[in-house]
Amino acid sequence: MKRLKTIRIVLATLFLGAAIAYVCIGPKASALAPVAVQAQIVPSALGVTLGATLLWLTLTFLFGRVYCATACPVGTLLDCALWLRRCVQPNGTRRRLGAGPPFRYRHARRARWEILLAYIVCLVLGVGVVPMLIEPWHVFCNVAALTHPSQAAAPWLQLGISGVTGLLAGGITALGIILSGLFWGREFCTVVCPVGTILAAATNYSFYHIEIDPDRCINCFECEHSCPSSCIKVVSRLVDDTRCVRCMECIARCPNDAIRLQLNRKRPATPLFIRHVTSTPS
Question: Dmax over Cα atoms in the chain, in whole Å?
């Protein structure tokens, strides 16, 4: 089970490398470069075919938000910022680069639905600025295209906006990704990203989910402190599966194999409360 994190990192690295090659060099940079954009949900949904969109929705109904953990380039960039937050010292202990305390459970924010609604309204009305700033593929393109200023300006010029806006958007977005990863983890994915919000709704009905085994959990809080989505509450044995981005960090950190990706719900082997029935005198 702990190998799931390694598999996820390998897939995310391949997708990110292909995405960088596609944006910075071109679709002919490598055989995988065109796959980077073809595998994205919004470009697929707005394109001729819905193949990638349907594939990711199917995988989400099966396993949860695996798109956020593997194919989303912004998610992988956030993981890079999170890696900086969890730099390892020579003695094996972890220090955080002034980025605040360990992650704690936070309640889901209603703002994610309001942002999704605003995103859909802007798409319907043809207001392209908002999608360019919050949709993950466009966000990544804004950042990656900084290496080619003319390329960064092109999409904004098509919207009738100065090309300088593209450079500013890319720079501000890059800074935002770094700061978000250092201080708030994957909050962009769980609050701002419209694709993430849609996948969160689908994850409500997924077959597999992250579950804490109450018989194995020793309350070490490793899973809660390492969860970049802040969706684990150890005291209540609660995992908000809709916000879980399937990074598998919690599974890799758990010292007792008490948190797993599984089909069935796990209940305590020993009842915590036993109901006593007393007979009343006749």
Answer: 92
Nearest-angstrom CA–CA distance, 261 and 241:
10
Q: Which domains does the chain have, with CATH numbers?
A: 208-262 (3.30.70.20)
C-alpha 95/C-alpha 168 separation (Å) is 32
DSSP state of 72: -
Q: Rounded to whole angstroms, how far apart are CA atoms 115 and 235? A: 31
Going from the C-alpha of 179 to that of each of 102, 132, 143, the distances in angstroms are 15, 20, 14
Please state the pTM of the whole predicted model.
0.83
pLDDT digits (tens, 9 = 90+) for 43-95: 887 775 678 889 999 999 999 999 999 999 999 999 998 888 777 444 445 55
Task: Mention every residue, 6+ apart, whose C-beta is less than 8 A from residue 239.
Answer: 209, 210, 211, 212, 231, 232, 233, 259
Two tokens, residue 140: 């990544």
